[in-house]
Amino acid sequence: MSEHDKTEPFKVGWEEWVSLPELGLPAIKAKVDTGAKTSALQATDIEAFGPSDKPHVRFTVHPVPGNESLAIPCSAAILDRREITSSNGDREMRYVIASVLEINGRKWPIELTLTDRRGMAMHMLLGRQALAEPITVSPSESHCQPILDYSVYASTTIRTTAPKRRLRIAVLSREDNYSTRRLIEEGEKRGHFVEVIDTTRCYMAINALAPEIHYDGARLPRYDAVIPRIGASVTQYGTAVLRQFETLGTFCLNGSEGITASRDKLFAHQILARHRLEMPATAFAASPKDTRSLMELVGGAPMIVKLLESTQGKGVVLAETRKAAESVITAFRGLRANFLVQQFVKEAAGEDLRCLVVGNKVVGTILRTGAEGDFRSNLHLGGTAKRVKISKIERETAVRAARAFGLNIAGVDMLRSSEGPKILEVNSSPGLEGVEKAMAKNLVAPLYELIEARVRPAPLRKIKAQANVPAALDAGG
């Protein structure tokens, strides 16, 4: 505010249009009440979160009275918790937050208590502490300052101009490894509250009206997003927990269906084929009578024999001759194990590409080379990795593969063959260490950018259908 502005009289009536830009509320009608000491903002779904030394509160504001389809998610640091006595004598403990109040271009800091004011004519009350500026209140007048319009909430610009909101994010993981630590580190650096939840310690109340997820004897709070890092050994239970989060309406970075499909190697190859994505020739059969025909379908020896449940290169065998292939297949069948046989791409020479896909973009790619004498290039088995540039077709193939499974983050493994890229696998919980270190680049930031774009701010439901409703409300003053 300029010195000239400070000398000018500033008058407000008993009701005025105000803005709370730090909360993403460009227009809200407030009742000015000098009889009230503190100011209050209508809020629902009020929930404290974060560490005890830096507590925050998140809440939902319905700025248009009577229109709960318009919901603005907000969060702020907690200043205090006070007992407030309402005009009818009711006492209530309320969280107190700080924000900036704006009226006709003038701004000043105020404190707000959060309470459910649904059913009241106005969803904000300005008390005398908020009017500490040299302001004249005229209780017989209304709208001494310019009138705003609720239709601003129907504009798509609210998504880009809304302030950044601190998110509460759960990482479903049983391991304290590099990937989990990086997810926590990057999330906290961006101002979010990130919790690690052991997938197998979750348990669920499954019902139609109020489904819940419990953990260590208590119901889990509402999360803005869940990042699943579900190990292969707990896929079935982990995806069941993830389905429960989906039932609650939580945004899950990777969905349960995509994870389940990617873990079933046979189903995964069928999905790739359905989406016309190239892969090494692959065959599957249940009967031992079909062994010879099975090998012919992939071009004969040498060939790869791969357990359906294999991970990190384990359970993957290179059979260099027909006899060796028959021996491996007989052994696997003797163990009643399900397996695939697959064409061996000689020109790949023990190397493959790992593309890390986030959203619709390849954010990093490494070339993995197997240890000497090993056709497998997995880093867990002694392979090495280096940064590499990929072609446009390789980039497009990786993105298409992730989209085929509906995954927002995926590690897509491909071979470079004489016929173009061939997909080996789509990993729904890719390790981050090898790619990040080889790329010398922050690859977790794009992941959080995707989450923030999806859940901050939350979708404004039914705004187009009700865009004319606020105008009718405004007409009534």
From TrEMBL:
Transmembrane segments: none annotated. It comes from the Bacteria. Keywords: ATP-binding, Ligase, Magnesium, Manganese, Metal-binding, Nucleotide-binding, Protein biosynthesis. Residues 269-452 form the ATP-grasp domain. Its cofactor is Mn(2+); Mg(2+). One of its GO terms (biological process) is SOS response. GO terms for cellular component: cytoplasm. GO terms for molecular function: ATP binding; metal ion binding; ribosomal S6-glutamic acid ligase activity. In the C-terminal section; belongs to the RimK family. This is Probable alpha-L-glutamate ligase. It comes from Cognatishimia maritima.
